[in-house]
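Ubiquitin carboxyl-terminal hydrolase (Sparus aurata), 852 aa
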Amino acid sequence: MADVGEVLMSVLSTIRVPKPGDRVHKDECALSFSSPESEGGLYVCMNSFLGFGGQYVDRHHARSGQRAYLHITRTRKAKEEDNNSGSGHPPKKKPTRLAIGIEGGFDVEQELYEEDVKVVILPDRQEVTSEDLATMPDVVRERVSLSMAGIMAADSVSHTLQVQQWDGEVRQESRHAADLKQLDNGVKIPPSGWRCEVCDLQENIWMNLTDGKVLCGRRYFDGSGGNNHALLHFQETGYPLAVKLGTITPDGAGDICIYVYSYDEDDMVLDAKLPEHLSHFGIDMMTMEKTERTMTELEIAVNQRVGEWEVIQESGTTLRPMFGPGLTGMKNLGNSCYLNSVMQVLFTVPDFQSKYVSNIDKIIDDAPSDPTQDFKTQVAKLGYGLLSGEYSKPAPDPGDENGASEPRGDQIGIAPQMFKALVGRGHPEFSTNRQQDAQEFLLHFINMVERNCRSGSNPSEAFRFLVEERIVCQQSQKAKYTQRVDYIVQLPVPMDQATNTEELQEAERRREEGDSSAPTVRAQIPFTACMAALSEPEILTDFWSSAVQTKTTATKTTRFASFPDHLVIQIKKFTFGLDWVPKKLDVSIDVPDTLDLSALRATGQQPGEELLPEVAPPPLMTPDVEVKGILGSHFNEEDDSLYSPLLSPVLDDSTVSQLCEMGFPLEACRKAVYYTGNTGIDAAMNWIMSHMDDPDFSAPLVLPGCSSGAGTTPTESLSEEHLATIVSMGFSRDQATKALRATSNVLDRAVDWIFSHLDDLESMDVSEGGRSAAESEGGRDPPPGPRVRDGPGKYELFAFISHMGTSTMCGHYVSHIKKDQQWVIFNDQKVCASEKPPKDLGYLYFYRRVAE
């Protein structure tokens, strides 16, 4: 074997020193979840700075030719006892700030490790320690030492992606504070004995800083708190700022930035003039005594309970931890439970297993030089980590201060840092550490799968189905059929169908009367009522009928044109109140274990049924505007002006302006006014709320009949490469052309647009699993289009995702999955056999087709 010094000299030119901007992966293997703490440690390539576990470093060496790797291993030290008060160690302090990693906040307990670092030269795995370098030539010693020091000193990619410090008490100065007008009404607030002026409640009392009204605070989702009288007062008067009585102390006298609540800004804010504002109503901060928990203290209490198993679900039950293949926990990276829950369920679906896990060796062999940025590689890595069982092992006992530990089901699990960074990159929400909606993430991930599976098998087809919408003009009784692709059934919750209405009304009455002992009653909604609400006809009051050439009333009925292999049902628990404030419906729904949707199969055009003519509605014009190019206006066979760009429609500028002032994009506002026929702000607002998730929501308005117009792209300027890509997905060239025109020749937007606008392409015979209106009479073979599977509409429940909290933007997600007839709860790193799966409280339900 060659001398190690000579070998090191021969590879010296490949050893780099990390520079600013280099991505150093020293915490996680690019192809697995191995880390320096894993058995065998982590090998960091000293040229590309990619990290590899022991099972993949040889493969990287063989493929790249790189030979020098920095081998990092960490061994956990034994944790010292903390209960030695006699040794001078103070007991741990309770957190006083809603923060992480800063003074007064939650402690971030750092594990103590013994770290071993050395250079390893492949393929013979010759080792070079720091001591060995001291005996080598200067040029070798300096270069290798600088590289080693640079790698160890650099922030790892995973480190830079994590939030090391978080302070929930960093608030913004209220825009109302500096110029707050206070009424000279003679009101003086006593130092104690406060009661709500409406309901006499004595807890959770707030004083409005404008008029001195003393009222109770918000009602919490569990029925506790106040009766919303302070909030109602703001809604009636517009007086924006309030302070919670009982939380004012002399502690704030030196630092006058004390928190108050701004109803208008919907957040805790700073009021630099608070002492002055309080003294207006006779309150001297120096004499006040704290009697109530501040909002921060309440938030801290809630956050301390978030990790407790009893709060998550199945309270009061000792759950049996489970380990093995398919039973791997996932670490919470900071509000990533939505991602964890969704991915646990998806890798229970055979299509995702076969696409990514069964072919993992080929995927890794075909991976690009930087696999950390490759979608297929990172999804396969995650899937294998969840299903292999390699990481489904009990977490090391961290010890506890009482000398006794109680098993809670925690696992070593996997930390999907690379995966989360990749799928969230560039996304305004999923790239952050904020809580997100699991349903939105599911659709986002499916969209990414669609984009990355334009050739070959596509596992998202397991969820894809066609929806048929039948619209019948009530004046002419003629019908229109459209089809669109969807992945999720959104099930409405008809609150008026609750079976325990009397209990709900009684509980509400007692709460309004200030009865603090009033029980919390959950609305019991029959699943059959939800399905009936989904399938019943919808009344369209402003339907433009091409048969009668005017607006009239129509009915819209929605049915399944195909049934997917796996059906996802979302319970629409999150809604908006009359004040547009998001709220969560506290409901229990008796979701069944088996489901038969055969009765909801679409039937297509009925015998003897006439179809509405394929004529676009006229653009909005004032009566004195003459439009060339519209049928009936200067049209003849020799004139091609029918295909000329239309004049701009006359829109109600005041309505457009009002919508823009609400923060909506200008083009979206113009479309809302156009498509609602200048009928006013309410109709336009409803249109916007119904179309906010459309991929082309902010795209320029394209008028019917225009060959090219604002926001469209002439055919000659379309990218042939983009056209070929969309055609390769099964669409026709005409369909691809229309999609690219509508999205300014942007490929990703065009793909989103074509999948969500099949109804807009109806006249181009976009159909699958059924016949379009044109084919119904012609009997032609189905044209190319998105592939959908079809089969019987009978299903069985195999998983559901539950949400706890008042909003999708906060709270916690867990998933329950049926494994070998046993329900298993996946709560981040905890994986246990479920004793009482709360199937009536789920948010997303996953069914698979029952084989006949």
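Residues 115 and 758 are 58 Å apart (CA to CA). The two ends are 65 Å apart (CA to CA). ok done for today
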